[in-house]
Amino acid sequence: MTHDHDHPHDHHHDNDLDPFAARVKALETVLTQKGLIDPAAVDAIVETYEHKVGPRNGARVVAKAWSDPEFADWLARDATAAIASLGYTGRQGEHMQAVFNSPDTHNLIVCTLCSCYPWTVLGVPPVWYKAPPYRSQAVINPRGVLAEFGLVLPETTRIRVWDSTAELRYMVVPMRPAETEDLGEEDLAKLVTRDAMIGTGVALRPGALGPGALWPVTGADA
Q1: Does the annotation count 164 as an active-site position?
Q2: 3-state secondary structure of 95
Q3: Is 136 among the catalytic positions?
């Protein structure tokens, strides 16, 4: 388990966010009343960044690692460079480490002090990732937290919890599902959810998306 409780953060802690969120909400209300913004349009933009733009980047990284052993080895050795080679780099993703799930080890990502998160590959962090209950319980009782997400692991499976910092952010490379040998990277990427790359889920099985589906649905953000 990795912890770094002395790390500096280049963004606000949760105890600073609540009043800020209140101000944002008040501003949104005023702008809506004046007819300057459409709340539905704002929600659509947020939804896009939460579930489409960001997670798709990370999913493509995972799919390439599943398909290309040399890339997987590079990703394990220098995730920052490997991810950047695909064009995914920038603020909140300058220093990355990829941790790989295996049959006997499952990885879980958390930031115990605030909400450090690799935006460039996973998009906007879900609400629950920033919530104090997740941040504390992920360290104290990771198996119980995973069970709340519907992921019940065998008692023999080791759970490693990685504490993200402003200097180093993590992403999980889930295990490749069975019966995907004939799938290309594009189709493999569709099996990778945001939650699987945080560690609160696993990759989808083939056919889970249904006919014509474009992208997986991740866990609820509430």
Answers
A1: no
A2: coil
A3: no
